[in-house]
């Protein structure tokens, strides 16, 4: 067992950065991290080669994919399959997301 401290907690991005990604835990089959975007910020991520689950721990935004869009806030759980374009937009409150990748982030790159 391992307690993953700090996962999903809001942290402001470094000066000059649009957002912040921190990987907290990684094994071959999955990884866990936190993705933070400040209110009014820009989500500049590209599609990933791994399946992904987001859990909104704080903040509000809208997630947009080629086939759908939805308002999200604390407690929302979002599945994004590998390779699907997706972006958080209209970020009205500092957004903190617990992110789980399967398999581990970057392992299929």
From TrEMBL:
Every Cupin type-2 domain range: 35-101
Pfam families hit by this protein: Cupin_2
UniProt protein name: Cupin type-2 domain-containing protein
């Amino acid at each position: 067992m391992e307690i993953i401290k700090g996962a999903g907690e809001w942290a402001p991005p470094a000066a000059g950065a649009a957002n912040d990604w921190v990987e907290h835990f990684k094994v071959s089959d999955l990884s866990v991290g936190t993705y933070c975007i400040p209110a009014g910020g820009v989500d500049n991520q590209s599609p990933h080669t791994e399946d992904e689950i987001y859990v909104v721990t704080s903040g509000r935004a809208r997630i947009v994919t080629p086939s759908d869009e939805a308002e999200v806030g604390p407690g929302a759980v979002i599945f994004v399959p590998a390779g699907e374009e997706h972006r958080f937009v209209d970020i009205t409150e500092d957004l903190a997301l617990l992110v789980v990748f399967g398999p581990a982030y970057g392992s299929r790159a």
